[in-house]
Amino acid sequence: METLELWYAVESFCYRIAVDLAMGDVLYRFTRPFVRRVSTARRAGIAYFAAMRVLDYMPLMIGNFLAYFLGVFAAFLVLVLAEREHCRRKIFLAVTFFSLRWMAWYMVNICMEAPTEAVISMSYMGGDVVLRFWSFVGVFLLRLLLAFGILRLCTGLIAKPYRNSGEDMTTEELLMLITPSVAGMSGYWIMRYYQSYIEDTMAAVLSGYYRGVAILHYGVWMATIVVVAVLFEKIRAKQEELLRDEMLREQMDGMQRHIRQVETFYRDIRGLKHDMANHIQTMGALYAKNEGAAAKEYAKAWEAALQEADGGIASGNPITDVILREWKEEAKKRGIVFSCAFRFPEDTRINAFDVSILLNNALQNAIEYCDKKDGELRVRSYRRNNAFLIEISNPFSGELRWDKEHALPLTSKEAAGGRAHGYGLYNMKKVAEDYAGTIEAEAEGGVFRLSIMLMAE
């Protein structure tokens, strides 16, 4: 008899460990696509397992709800401490896992009530002791496999389409995503209350009817949690695809403008080269006649023509030269004074094409918002040790609205379909962050100033 009791004690101990291991594995696989490092997700799964093991041996008796809450909270703390960014996303993971775990296990418990009662009845009827023991093992193993399978399916469906590990959720998105989980848990407690009431006061047939309704209820809620999360991610991915298409279209338009500017520039250069022989011949004739004053005036006119050909821009890089000349011409057409003191940083890791994205987007916004009456657009660059700074300022009237989530000013432009158009600023911020830098904007004293910092090395 003592040997049989030992067998059941070992079986119970191993079962609890297996459950905690399986749930820790589900949590690890669920969180892995949402974090930067695989080790972070692994530590979260280990933290959950360790917390549940410690709580299992605590002399103070606590309810299952609080115990599982503490286990999930331990995993949440590990996620936050290992990667401090994107806390809202980690709240979503913790709440969703906690809710799915409760509902999945409750569904399995309802489904396994009949087999479990059959095995218990077998133990009272006598017979082969070993057969009864392995029947218990089989029932509990089936219970574990069913719960593990349901949770892996649900969490896998949620995690599979996720492709935004570099972005956090907004507060509104978080509330939308955890609402089904919270509602499902509320429904769980309501269903448990009615279960106790039915089992105490109603006939067995109603109790069986309740079990069917409960399974349907939890299944619907789990499906709702999965569908909302998956659809949200697909909608978000579609929006990002539209964003990339819009950015690509803007970049193609910019490239076409640059090509036209380059063609104009080199056409002017070819014209000067064609006239070079005539200029030299004219200068020679003037000096031959000892008309130095006339030759000097002619040389000044020739110098002015050369400066006009290069637009008065000499940034030290042909790519930035083209962009600055283009927007200087655009500013001239709009009656805007264009003041430029920009110099491309040589012998650094900064790529001219990345700088062209910054200049093109910033100057486009500046010219569109510049006040034509007394507008002066200023472009400056500075080098401070390892930091390269670009500053673009223009007159600005009105109230500046902010995107608090990304710390960027909102644009008043409208894209196709009536959507807010502000992709350029987000693209600029991404480029700056690639160089461990940032962008800042301020509006003060009737002037809007955009500052861009890039780390040169």
What's this, in brief?
By secondary structure, this protein is α+β, with helices and mostly antiparallel strands.
Quantity of strands, as a count: 7
- State the helicity in percent bands: 55-70%
> Rg to the nearest angstrom?
35 Å
Largest sheet: 5 strands, mixed
Order of helices and strands: HHHHHHHHHHEHEEEEHEE
- Total count of domains: 2
Mean pLDDT: 78
Portion in beta strands: 5-15%
Contiguous uncertain segments of 5+ residues: 413-421
Category by helix and strand content:
alpha+beta
Described by the principal axes of the CA atoms, the overall outline is elongated
Number of helices: 12
Give a description of the structure.
The protein is elongated, with a radius of gyration of 35 Å. Helices cover 69% and strands 9% of the residues. The chain is α+β, with helices and mostly antiparallel strands and 457 residues long. The chain folds into 2 domains: 2-246, no CATH class; 310-455, 2-Layer Sandwich (Heat Shock Protein 90), CATH 3.30.565.
List the helices and strands and how they pair.
Elements: H1 2-31, H2 38-56, H3 64-82, H4 87-111, H5 113-124, H6 129-159, H7 171-201, H8 204-288, H9 292-309, H10 318-333, E1 337-341, H11 352-369, E2 376-384, E3 387-395, E4 402-403, E5 408-409, H12 423-434, E6 438-444, E7 447-455
Parallel strand pairs: 1-2
Antiparallel strand pairs: 2-3, 3-7, 4-5, 6-7
Keywords:
single chain; 457 residues; alpha+beta; Heat Shock Protein 90; 2 domains; five-stranded mixed beta sheet; 12 helices; 7 strands
